[in-house]
Task: structure prediction
Amino acid sequence: MTAVEAELAAGRPLHDARTQLRAATDLLGYDEGMFAMLAAPRREVAAWDGVSAYARQLARPLRLAATALAVERVAQAHVQRGLYP
Result:
């Protein structure tokens, strides 16, 4: 069993993904800076923070807050583009 397979068997998804990313960057010869940039999920963390704050504001579950936030953003985009009166 390889190191990557051992990590996958442990059942830790984010750690598993970073372990696989480390193996890929080593294989491709990328430096530590490239690994650090690829390993930091900035967009995902920002999205999570936004949805969780909106869920707290509405006092609703995350799934409902995510849907409401998405619908609100689409509606705002339509208004900004003049698609609705």
User: Anything to note?
Assistant: Residues 27 and 36 are 15 Å apart (CA to CA). The mean pLDDT is 84. Helices lie at 3-10, 13-28, 32-39, 42-58, 62-80. The first helix runs from residue 3 to 10.
